[in-house]
Amino acid sequence: MQHRRLGQTGPFVSALGLGCMGMSGMYGPADRAESIATIHAALEAGINLLDTGDFYGMGHNEMLIGEALQGRSRDQALISVKFGAMRDPTGAWLGYDARPQAVKSFLAYTLQRLRVDYIDIYRPARLDPNVPIEDTIGAVADMVKAGYVRHIGLSEVGPETIRRAAAVHPVCDLQIEYSLISRGIEESILPVCRELGIGITAYGVLSRGLISGHWSKDKAGPGDFRAHSPRFQKGNVEKNLALVEALKRVADQKGVSVAQIAIAWVAAQGDDIVPLIGARRRDRLSEALGARNVTLTEGDLAAIEQPVPRGSAAGARSAAPQMAMLDSERG
Fold it and tell me: Which portions of the sequence form the region Disordered (predicted)?
């Protein structure tokens, strides 16, 4: 497993990270034993970056990771945690809370659920419109000084917010959606991050499974948020799966899977980008790990982007209410 530094100030992480959200219900039911086995398999394969959020399954995901890491050296895993999203007992989203006192309270509960003494990378999940980013980052910086947090990250914020946050404390990375069919960061967000020496941890590299090569129409079941996601809706999903078919022809010529070429494309966009793999089963993890062996030439990149050009996806990457909460989507 290759490693790269996360930004100018962050830790050295594996070239692929494991996103654990899907292990806690966002894509429908998940098998607990298989989830833990997948985390173990990732660690044994050399992946050391585990990404979670304290609101994934209302704490379930953190407790799952805490259980998976028991008996292992703390430094075997770098844990990245998002905080601030509020949910009610039904799981409904209530907005965001990034007040300084809330930040420190969220962190206290996270440490308990994960059974650790510190968090490697701590980040607000979204920009709280009612709290200046300087106040939020300042509170996390207090926790860095106290030893409870090692590095500060950001998630789904735009250029102005990135600059304001970085002026308070060094930011190691921005976590944001980035894939062949979600390339919005290229215009202004990625240049600012590179100017400031901030890395990218890219989630949604397979667009929630849409460009994995395994998705078929009407596949989303109970509890799977993709049933309401624009790109998976009738009229859009057919157009998007046609893009996948075009991508498959390129993948077949390389002798790799669609998922592998899609992951390799993200990784090839720069050494400052770390794709997060959302595998919740060992077979999917094994396939994703195969992307490490895919070398893309300039000709390959052109062949990939020709049938799947920027802006070709049908439908927004999230539903309208979620898009409205994304600072990264504001002009």
Answer: 307-331
Q: Give the type of residue at 147.
A: G
Q: Does domain 3-329 have CATH number 3.20.20.100?
A: yes
Residue 24, SS3?
Answer: helix
Gap between the Cα atoms of 195 and 190, Å rounded:
9
Please report which helix (H) or strand (E) contains residue 66, including its range.
Answer: helix 60-69
Catalytic residue among 56, 122, 148, 178: 56
Question: What are the residues facing 174 on neighbouring strands?
Answer: 154, 200
Token pair, residue 83, equals 């905080």
pTM for the full predicted model: 0.93
Q: What angle do CA 186, 14, 33 make, to 5 degrees?
A: 110
Q: Please say if 56 is a catalytic residue.
A: yes
Alpha-carbon gap, residue 313 to 237, rounded angstroms? 9
Domain positions in the chain:
3-329
Tens digit of each residue's pLDDT (9 = 90 or more) over 291-311: 999 999 999 999 999 888 888
| Cβ pair 327, 98 in contact under 8 A | no
pLDDT in tens, 247-295: 898 899 999 999 999 999 999 999 999 999 999 999 999 999 999 999 9
Integer angstrom CA distances of residue 96 from 127, 161, 174, 210, 326: 8, 16, 18, 28, 11
